[in-house]
UniProtKB/TrEMBL annotation:
It holds the Pfam family Aldedh. This is Aldehyde dehydrogenase family protein. Belongs to the aldehyde dehydrogenase family. Keywords: Oxidoreductase. It comes from Speluncibacter jeojiensis. The active site is at residue 265. GO terms for molecular function: oxidoreductase activity, acting on the aldehyde or oxo group of donors, NAD or NADP as acceptor. Residues 40-490 form the Aldehyde dehydrogenase domain.
Length: 492
């Protein structure tokens, strides 16, 4: 039988239009509320086709310096704003983003390769929801509290350098900009080289609000140039970085040397733990869906499925069936489940990790590294399920960042917890059980930042971030807001 992902999707009637509009051809940085022309630019490619769909500026370290100075100047005004003013401006920003939803979705499909339904729900709508949530947090969080004979005051930390990755560019931007503006901070944004277009559109929306000029500045360009320029700048108080653990370690070391706060959201290798009494069907289906979301390019993806030994073969067969049923193809089509990976380099990295695991003895239960038929030109990879890997094999420990799920067996709750914790990461996870108390007990023995019981939904008010090599600090909600706050205690 031909798996649906070999039947391909062609552009269907409901497919969205990603013909490149003029707003995707940029050559500017945004500094102090004005667009500044940059002599150098780079092309932005559609990973589904390889076509150039837009262009972005390659700003310099000097542009980054000027952006920080502009953010400091705007900070003089914004730090003095009231909670109500911050809430109103964020509410206005959410409105402006809502007005640009279609543009933001199209840019996300075109530059990330995210399937349109994923771009809508998990990228753009979630980003707008997060900005809305920070409007509420700005309104509700007390800026002064009395503790004994102290007045504790939440004060804006200063300029936040927001460095974002390519996998969820708009969502990550919203998490960083929302928290910073809510706390009275101003921002300099550095998007990933692969995905600057949505960030430009987000900044267009910012310029359409009453926020002071320079509250949000944009310096697209090379991470190795703009990143260090921002981190080293004495005017930057907080570095909010999302990306790989490798670069995160450098960012943390650089910030640490300067005794500067670094909030690091890094990689993951999260386990979905199925306990003996769980509904196996729901657990496997939920895990495959989470592992493959955004074509597996999700830091918090559950990429390890840990099932009771007695049900191992059943779980492998079911996971393979779910993966085979996913449609890989044109991300503009509403019938598509998985688009391309974001770049050729990412495709090669994923293929290499899968091929290496197979060479060490892994069984390919679904997918594999053969090209997806009919999809030449794009960076497509089949949804893949691997089984029969050795305990501690690199594929059970290292982040793949592609549509690859590994199924492992366990001999009870204690071993499942030990296996789940046996990675250097600790970002997310799942527990499945008919007994909620037992599931929560297991969840609380997992050394990880977020655990979902029985497929519970994502909560944008809960702190998001990792233990161990998955990072430092948290984003979202009140705790994310506090990453942009400095405290002063006044004793009376
Ligand atoms: P990356 O580390 O290559 O790049 C992230 C950002 O850092 C980009 O904007 C890049 O230009 C910039 N950068 C590169 N070199 C830099 C330097 N020396 N100093 C400062 N900035 C620099 O990561 P990526 O490949 O864009 O993203 C994928 C990774 O991000 C994955 O490992 C994924 O798990 C992780 N991620 C984590 C989270 C989370 O919340 N924990 C969310 C999304 C992605």
């Amino acid at each position: 039988m031909t798996a649906p992902h070999e039947q391909l999707t062609t552009r269907d009637e409901e497919a969205i239009d990603v013909n490149t509009p003029s707003t995707w051809w940029r050559s500017t940085a945004l500094i102090g509320g004005r667009w500044r022309e940059c002599p150098q630019t780079c092309d932005v490619e559609n990973p589904a086709t390889g076509e150039v769909v837009g262009r972005a500026a390659v700003a310099t370290a000097a542009d980054a310096d000027d952006a920080v100075v502009a953010a400091q100047a705007a900070g003089q005004v914004w730090a003095a704003s009231t909670a109500a003013q911050r809430a109103a401006a964020l509410g206005q920003l959410a409105e402006r983003l809502r007005g640009r939803r279609d543009e933001l979705v199209a840019a996300t499909v075109a530059e990330v390769g995210a399937p349109v339904t994923v771009a809508e729900q998990s990228h753009v709508d979630l980003a707008i929801e997060i900005i809305d949530s920070f409007a509420r947090i700005a309104a509700e969080t007390p800026l002064r509290e009395q503790v004994g004979n102290s007045i504790l005051v939440r004060r804006p930390a200063g300029v936040v350098a927001a460095i974002t990755p390519w996998n969820y560019p708009i969502y990550q931007l919203a998490a960083k900009v929302g928290a910073a503006l809510a706390a009275g901070c101003t921002v300099v944004v550095k998007p990933a080289e692969l995905t600057p277009l949505g960030t430009y559109l987000f900044c267009d929306a910012v310029l359409d609000t009453d926020l002071p000029a320079g509250a949000v500045n944009l310096v697209p360009g090379r991470g190795s140039v703009i990143g260090p320029a921002l981190i080293e700048h004495p005017g930057v108080a907080v570095v909010s970085f999302t990306g790989s653990t490798t670069v995160g370690r450098q960012v943390g070391a650089q910030a640490g040397r300067l005794v500067k706060r670094a909030c690091l959201e890094l990689g993951g290798k999260s386990a979905s733990v199925v306990l003996g009494d769980a509904d196996l069907d729901a657990a496997v289906r939920g895990t495959v869906a989470a592992a493959m979301l955004n074509t597996g390019q999700t830091c918090s993806a559950w990429t390890r499925l840990l099932v009771p030994r007695a049900r191992y073969e059943e779980a492998v067969a079911l996971a393979a069936e779910c993966a085979d049923a996913l449609v890989v193809g044109d991300p503009t089509s509403r019938g598509t489940d998985l688009g391309p990976l974001a770049s050729k380099a990412q495709l090669i990295a994923v293929r290499t990790m899968v091929d290496d695991a197979v060479a060490r003895g892994a069984r390919v239960a679904a997918g594999g590294t053969a090209p997806v038929k009919g999809l030449a030109g794009g960076h497509f990879h089949r949804p893949t399920v691997l089984a029969d890997v050795d305990r501690g094999d690199p594929i059970t420990r290292d982040e793949v960042f592609g549509p690859v799920l590994v199924v492992e067996s366990h001999d009870g709750d204690d071993e499942a917890v030990a296996l789940a914790n046996a990675t250097e990461y600790g970002l997310a996870g799942a527990v499945w059980s008919a007994d909620e108390e037992r599931a929560v007990d297991v969840a609380l023995r997992m050394d990880t930042g977020q655990v979902d019981v029985n497929g519970a939904p994502f909560n944008p008010l809960a702190p998001f971030g990792g233990w161990k090599a998955s990072g430092l600090g948290r984003e979202l909600g009140r705790i994310g807001f506090d990453e942009c706050v400095e405290w002063t205690a006044v004793q009376i």
